[in-house]
């Protein structure tokens, strides 16, 4: 039945065992964040995708980048490119919120501070070498926006990270941005 539906263009394969109705059979488009959770989990939308979602970086993001506790993967699908990067953390949901993205559709999305923490880990950024310039120059974030970040979950995020380099960066960043 599945093979027949694939041949006739009624469904499309997102990955092995996961399918979506073809566009002509759908009443609405599935939100990319919801697809990201279904394609490879457990995961949450983070990195540049979350930063763009929160309006912190000016660039358009043409893929959905997520973080997972499992191995890193990439899926090129008819619905877009979905990447998953491994970030080890004992508190995987610290700094992650369930956000309503469409009517009756929810997705786990990193808060801005969690997305920055994940990005620092993935890019192997060091405070001693890069400092705030990584965020303000390389990522083109506005300092005024960084000062307004909600740091309430930072303690939980830091306690779960297994990367001393990331903890050092975020601690210095917090000091530089003030209380």
Give a structural overview.
With 179 residues, the protein is an alpha+beta fold. It folds into 2 domains: 28 residues, no CATH class; 147 residues, no CATH class. The chain contains 9 helices and 8 strands. A 4-stranded mixed sheet has the order 3-4-6-5, sandwiched between helices. The mean pLDDT is 92.
- One letter per element, helices H and strands E, the order comes to HEEHEHEEEEEHHHHHH
**What Rg is obtained from the alpha carbons, in whole angstroms?**
18 Å
Total of domains: 2
Percent strand: 15-25%
Strand order of the largest sheet: 3-4-6-5
Index terms:
179 residues; alpha+beta; 2 domains; 4-stranded mixed β-sheet; two-stranded antiparallel ribbon; 8 strands; elongated
